[in-house]
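Exercise 7. Predict the joint structure of the components listed below.
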Amino acid sequence: MVRDLYLTNYEERALEGEYGEASAHISGVSYSTIGEHGREFLESYSLNAKVSIPTTVNPLGIDPTDTSDFIIDEKYLSEQMKIIQSYRKLGVTDSFTCTPYEGFHSQVKGSHVSWAESSASIYANSILDLRTNRESALSALASAITGKTPCSELHIDEYRKPSLSIDVNIDEFSGSMKFGLLGYFAGKMARGPIAFQGIKSPISSEAKALCASIGASGASGMFLINEEVDGESIRFDKSDLIKTYDGLNDGKEEEDAIILGCPHLNIQEIHEISDIVEGKKFNKRCLIFCSRRAYEEAKRKGYTKKIEGAGAKFICNTCAVFTPIISHLEVDIIATNSCKAAHYLKRTQNVKISLKDTHDLLIEGCK
Amino acid sequence: MRVVNDLRGVFRARGLVNSIGWGEALISPSPISFLGGVNPGDGRIIDKSNELYGMSIYKKVLIFPHSIGSSVGAYVIYKLKKNDKAPSAIINRMSDMITVSGCALAKIPLVDMVDGLSLIKEGDYLIVNGSQGFVILS
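Solution:
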């Protein structure tokens, strides 16, 4: 029997593209975070559901197709595999990255989307001019299925006006470490959009660090750079930068391993690493996390050969923090360039953190 | 359920997740990051920067401003429930998607915007009605 399909006014406008192009990005993919209860839920949920809009997913805890260097518990592998199968059944793109905006999504500006992964949703609002709330793993999943997201907060113009301004009072403010520390400080200060004053527009690696840090320390879903605001204003001085750094860094002891790629590295970031380490050798384990897509591109361009030649190991489609690989390393002190990784590694992996700028980390760790 | 024989107040609230829960109030003045901040295995707060560090949220009416941090926090709320270590209800100042969606899947009663929130003290016995949106202080 053929039935007519009637659209609501809203659905007709959506079909005409008035709300841009929908998309969803789902977190809750690593077995380390969702566990067997999450796996079970996804298994039953995926029996009768399909995504209705382009949907990407966050990194895995381990990539079952590439476990060559690590002995991973069989149960972990099989549970992770089941999670992957559930997401496949739902019809997602197997992006397995926390940076879906690098190579997977290209919605027109102003589009209303539903992205979980705190760093990606902040990036979407602040850098890509998309509109999303800071969705949870579950609410983004619901959006992926229904094609809808609540018309609230950051989807509405008036909520996208910053309520807090942070005046950065530091000369030559650049580099992903400083942007990361600023974000970690700022995330604790406001729930709504934040306006940063006195800094240049961040380049992509700086923006990624800023977004990831705001996501880890707070609930704000958006920032603006050098935008006038009415409302409260606070300062971010050199002393705040140092205090924030000291809160994340555990001391001056020599690290046992280096972790790069939280958030996942893009092709430019991999290129920069290859330039620094070419012809040298790492004096400790160095793990580099990125999407398989970024890895393949870097391989074609000859970057991975230089980095692997120096002794570092690429780990694709995997989260740099929520993975059994970290405990498998059996190390006490991990060096990273990421405030977000520092925040979560300390809390979940029983390791100490040496927080260092990317350049310093590579110069000291690879000679 | 304890008999409410000493009613101190009924506060209007916004009901977010249906059903009713009761227990002693446990108050976190700071926002909570469920991922990395709460151990879903035993229900304890493991974030050293939180005022409730080391304490269990099991069977409490957990009061906190809102969630922060990872979007996977919603699954941590669900895991708490599945492990039978969940709070009996949650009260937020102004809730957020992590808490709402986690409580919805875990079926933990949730309200926010409580009229007399400042009158509620640690250890007070509360009944939270997420269906109709009110909190009883006894």
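Discussion. Chain A has a mean pLDDT of 94.
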